[in-house]
Design goal:
The longest helix has 21 residues. The protein has a domain of 189 residues: Rossmann fold. The strands form two sheets. The protein has a six-stranded parallel sheet with strand order 2-1-3-4-5-8. By secondary structure, it is α/β, with parallel strands linked by helices. The protein is built from ten helices and eight strands.
């Protein structure tokens, strides 16, 4: 099988996992000759390439659409011209909702992306779904929430830095539940999908840990790991939001995007894929996966 985008955090973990049971060929599209490096005997294409959120606001709309749309088109065209039968494209739940949802997000939920990231992910999905699939070929578009694990440097790392610094935690006034996906559970899903591809119809599937976690619960686990005794200050929400707005213009650790990511409710339903694959239990609970990620920050 071929993995595109194997140099990132998720890609490295997935390749290591897949190599336990299969031959994995890594293709790097930054190589001008990447098309010539494709293993023509591979039966599965897995695309992890994409530009994620840019908290420094230095990326342009064109940057997002090139990485998340143009590159996807080029890879898919190579898949169609090949003898491979399965194309797995890793999209994002941001193609549906990016910051907040009061109801669990299913594959039938209406899409409301707002950033260049979410919009470009949705455009790529629509383009893929509009392509003709020759007989014998299947396309699976997977929408995970935030994937985390050892080596992750995302918003969980930011929380860890705040707590480990000893400063009082200022966001305890926010109550939420969010879905995450541990990288081990992600790898498990990919293997199960490949093994059972013949039993799945082409289309979109949501992935996530089965349990949700609140940000306050995550903070509690971090504090337990650090044996920290940070005060938890219930700063008025309006004041926190004002500070976050300042962070949109000043180099502060908190801005409006990060605040929404940390404090808004966003739950993803994995019922469809779990039912079709007959998954009763994932390898890790949400809390077990979180513990592994937090432990890795100490290193």
């Amino acid at each position: 099988m071929i993995v595109f985008g194997s140099s990132g955090f998720v890609g490295k973990n997935l390749v290591q996992h897949l190599k336990n049971n299969a031959s994995v060929h890594e293709v790097f599209v930054r190589n001008p000759m990447w098309e010539e490096t494709i293993d023509q005997t591979s039966d599965v294409y897995i695309n992890l390439i994409g530009k994620a959120h840019d908290h420094s606001n230095s990326a342009s709309e064109a940057d997002y659409f090139f990485a998340n749309v143009t590159v996807v088109k080029n890879i898919f065209k190579k898949f169609i011209a090949s003898e491979a039968s399965l194309f797995i494209h890793i999209s994002s739940i941001a193609a549906v909702e990016e910051f907040e949802s009061m109801e669990p997000l299913s594959e039938n939920s209406e899409c409301h992306p707002v950033s260049y990231y979410g919009i470009s992910k949705k455009v790529a999905e629509q383009w893929l779904l509009n392509q003709h699939l020759p007989r014998g070929k299947k396309l699976f578009i997977l929408r995970p929430p935030m994937i985390h694990g050892p080596g992750d440097k995302g918003n969980l790392g930011l929380l860890y830095k705040i707590i480990s610094s000893g400063f009082p935690y200022p966001l305890s006034a926010f109550k939420n539940e969010r879905s995450f996906l541990s990288v081990n559970n992600f790898n498990f899903y990919i293997s199960k999908i490949i093994e059972n591809a013949q039993n799945l119809e082409s289309g979109i599937y949501h992935l996530s840990d089965t349990e949700t976690l609140s940000t306050n619960h995550i903070v509690k686990i971090i504090k337990e790991d650090l044996s920290a005794k940070n005060l938890e200050i219930s700063v008025p929400k309006i004041l926190v939001k004002c500070v976050a707005i300042l962070g949109d213009f000043l180099p502060l650790p908190l801005n409006t995007k990060r605040l929404k990511k940390l404090t808004s409710p966003l739950v993803v339903s994995n019922q469809k894929i779990n039912h079709l694959l007959k998954i009763e239990r994932l390898p890790e609970s949400a809390q077990q996966g979180l513990w592994k990620t937090i432990k890795s920050f100490q290193k």
